[in-house]
Amino acid sequence: MDNPSDEAQAVRERYARRAEVDWRYSRLNPATLAAAHERERAITRLFARLGWNDLSSRRVLEVGCGTGGNLLELLQMGFAPRNLAGIELLPGRFAQAMQRLPAAVVLMQGDASLVKLPENSEDIVLQSTVFSSLLDAPFQWRLAQTMWRWVRPGGGVLWYDFTIDNPRNPDVRGVTVARIRELFPVGRVQFQRVTLAPPLARRVCALHPSLYPVFNAIPLLRTHLLAWIEKPLT
Predict the structure, then answer these.
(1) CATH code at 4-230
(2) E strands within 129-220?
(3) How many CB atoms lie within 10 A of CB 156?
(4) Is the pTM of this model over 0.90?
(5) DSSP secondary-structure letter at 63?
């Protein structure tokens, strides 16, 4: 696919095949809630390691912001609405984000690889389970380079995505650490494995939510990477 819009259209078609409302991804699902809390704790620990104790002045742009859930979490962590922005490809999800988020949050609808924004303008460019839905390698590369241009030196790409293919879903593909390093060759990559494998998490949480951390203590059962890809100062 030589035209970036080709892969963007393919993503629209893949999402159209999915259910609009899926209990598996609802915060009312104990497994989803446990995974979200685990991820939030890991992100706040990352910010603490970076020495970012006051988040109100930090600028964040999310690529593939969906219905705005991640941006809402960042607001609760202490980011200011005026410093948050999101880009969403799918019109329906974009409309939901517009309804859920404060008016000061800047939202854009369309293909993020074609958006023109100032270089070195963001402390964080966030992507959450976007790249695993991009099956075209050149498009992945173009989007990664676009994101990297937006990151200021000393900032970084905050990455959350799974690493293992889902044999039941041909519309997604796991993204490995090696692939992350290919996409951001000059970035300083720190990562940790998080998130109990969702099918297993749903089973154990159906028995009792307290079993999530018990099983998640086994690293081999974690399917996602939380990575910080830092842009060097020089």
Answers:
(1) 3.40.50.150
(2) 151-162, 188-196
(3) 27
(4) yes
(5) E
At 86, the amino acid letter reads G
How many C-beta neighbours within 10 Å does residue 21 have? 6
CA 58 to CA 227: how far, in whole Å? Answer: 18
Residues in Cβ contact with 91 at an 8 Å cutoff, skipping those fewer than 6 apart: 109
DSSP 94-147: HHHHHHHS-TTSEEEES-GGG----TT-EEEEEEES-GGG---HHHHHHHHHHH
Domain ranges for the chain, please list them.
4-230
Q: Which of 6-15, 115-124, 197-206 has the lowest mean pLDDT?
A: 6-15
Instruction: Give the pLDDT score at 1.
Output: 37
pLDDT digits (tens, 9 = 90+) for 88-135: 999 999 999 999 999 999 999 999 999 999 999 999 999 999 999 999
Three-state DSSP state, 67: coil
Structure tokens at 124: 């964080």
Q: Which residue has the higher pLDDT, 142 or 6?
A: 142
Place of tokens 């905050």: 158
231 and 150 in contact (C-beta within 8 Å)? no
